User: Fold these one by one.
Assistant:
Number 1:
Amino acid sequence: MKDIEIKINYQFMTLDELDGEDRMLVETAIKATNNSNAKYSHFCVGAALLLEDGSVVVGANQENAVFPLGLCAERTAIFAAQAQTPQLAMKKLAVAARNEQGLVRNPVSPCGSCRQVMLEMEDRYKQPMKVLLYGTDGVFVVDSARDLLPLCFLDESMK
């Protein structure tokens, strides 16, 4: 038997420490929480996706009485971008959330399904997607979605 350790590198910054583009993206994700349809969980998530041409696509979680039919903010942004401009690579994704008390303290993290989709977008465009996870206490900055899903399953896994 051999023990293998998996490590990820990320930064933890305040909103003020982010560069202008990253801060704008996080602020857009915060605003996108207002587009959420979260009448069951009351947990509103917003996402802002920066494309290679500088345009930003927003997403927000959408809940449904039949729970499996809802969709996360990250995937609504990614799928909207893919439907409208599939030729444009995705550079950065910011995620923010609020509950009934306001914006969450700890940075919100994508679910496993969103991580898989993010990873496949990196694979499709052959470049990393920077991920910014916002909480009022600070922002996790991850250089690549791959770091969020280290033991991943991609097309190459089937060869």
Number 2:
Amino acid sequence: MKKIFLIALMALACTPMMRAQETAVRVPSGYQGFLEQGNSFRLADNFKSAVGVSTTHGFYFGQHTFIGIGIGIEVNKDFTVVPIYTALKYNFNYTHQATPTFQVRVGSFVANAVGSYCDLAFGVRFGSSRDFAINVLLTGTLYSNCEREKWIPADDENYGHTETYTFNPSSIGLRIGIEW
């Protein structure tokens, strides 16, 4: 996680240098696909980390706005969450290699139950002269509360009981991905 975070910080620090070397950037249009990997830290439960991957597919409407649908998976040793969402992405300046971007994902998730999901991300899109870009995003993800059951063993290992508790996998994190 530290290596990925340092790479993302170096990429953001190099943005002004890249602007001096700008070349023609392909204007996004039509179908685009995204594949993103992220590391997140739960807001509750002492900031336990989780790893996730997601894919989003849709279309650019104009040069700035992308609308698509996607699915992901986020895994921690305590939980697994599968969000299914609609994504809206806005690129502020599509003619530069490095441009600010904002993304909203809204949908549902499946864990032990079904709940609502919302993800807000802000970052930088590094475009190229071909149909390809790299995105580095800081994220905030909100999930509705879930109930889980936990087995509590008694003194004798053959006996015990289950307890139901509520948890919330909401998190903050860093997501890096490719766009084609």
